[in-house]
Design goal:
Layout lengths: L1 H7 L2 H8 L3 E6 L2 E6 L2 H22 L5 E6 L53 H12 L8 E4 L6 H15 L5 E5 H13 L3 H9 L3 E5 L8 H16 L3 E6 L11 H7 L3 E4 L5 H14 L6 H10 L4 H17 L6 H7 L1 H9 L3 H12 L13 H17 L4 H7 L5 H17 L1 H17 L2
Parallel strand pairs: 2-3, 4-7, 4-8, 5-6, 6-7
Antiparallel strand pairs: 1-2
Bound molecules: adenosine-5'-diphosphate and magnesium ion (MG).
Length: 446
Amino acid sequence: MLAEVELEVSRPNFHTWFRKTALTDVEDGVAKVAVPNNFAKEWLEAKYRRFILKLLRSYDSDVREITFAIGKPNNAETPVTSPKQAPHPSAATTTLPLKTPAQHESGLSARYTFASFIVGPSNELAHAASMSVVKQLGTLYNPLFIYGSVGLGKTHLIQAIGNYFKANWPNDTVLYVSSERFTTEFVQAIQHNRVSDFSMFYRQIDLLIIDDVQFFGGKEKTQEEFFHIFNALHQGGKQIVLSADRPPRDIKGIEERLLSRFQWGLSADLQLPDLETRIAILRRKAVEDGIQIDHDILEYVAHNIKSNIRELEGALIRLLAYGTLHEREIDLPMAKEVLRDLIKDTRVTLSIEEIQRLVCEYFSIEEDLVRAKTRKREVVQARQAAMFFCKELTQHSLKTIGLHFGGRDHSTVIHANQSVSNQIDTDSKFREMIEEIRHKIELRSR
Ligand code: ADP
Ligand code: MG
């Protein structure tokens, strides 16, 4: 369920409200959800009750009600516990985990390892950089900065660094923390007059991993604190690993001096995985979960979900859940049916204008030209490519597409489409170009 929630709400919302929750029990139509604190309890009750109920009902139509109770959920691997083990509700105390580093929790999840990370052209640089960092901590690339858009494996990779470190240097201290969590703890430290404890705690860490640092944007006090911690660790030869959804220079609202430090070491990006890598990831996931699934189904999923590995996994999970609930073998027609809305969703967001704009940008021509009468070679090429993508990636009719290209006839769109398809089949350079444009469009369309 959490995997589905993650797809539905924004990342900060997911991190703040959902990540630490768990379904602990369902009895007589009442679902019990464990939440970490009172704040989360009230917020979920007020804002997300209906949303959660609806989602629960899609799994179990008997559920009528939800109760939220403060308690510690089990780990993500086994979110559902039997009623006997259900956590005891406790008073809502949000205490700061300011223990000595030796007794702190690392924040790492054991499932994110190098071994479970599939390497392909889209991520091999970031992967290689991560592997070399753990072998030469603090000296090679410091900080290591991993960036890429949502669901491409940033958290997985930087946690893998942490897990590798933990396994090999059990006496040293590693801490993984999201930037939101860092911020929250810092704010609490201010409220409780414990800023110096906070700062001491972080300075004793040997490997500090901070996820999604773009959320430091605009938080000046937090940035200042982090700046000093960063300097202390860096000077002490301690390794720092950071991630963000974009390269350092594009992060908004971060002080210049901090930004420049982000760029001291190495920045490595995660790109969209290609088809083979997507299939390999799905296959690995299926093996991990011990399930048999036909290659053509994996291929169907990988072919249609391209921009986000989390969604790719989400699709597989949905298929499994459906198959289990209905006690049916997963076959291709069923996969198509079950994933229909997921797959359609990734396409409806594109408009014809958007495609025209992106294609023209690619060919460096004025956007108006694709709608104009000109028959110049490079314009015709751009126009045909844009028509081709409009047909493939939008739901618009040929007629509508033609109209948006300076009132052209639908037969012109058919012709363009055929011409592009033929060239894709016969000319590998051309095919590469089309794939590049597709990649560009997909990156922008989310
Ligand atoms: P991000 O932090 O960039 O948003 P995550 O690291 O959370 O993305 O990755 C999303 C999901 O995809 C996770 O379940 C992760 O394990 C999986 N994943 C991402 N990249 C890979 C990969 N190369 N091999 C295997 N699984 C991957
Ligand atoms: Mg992440």
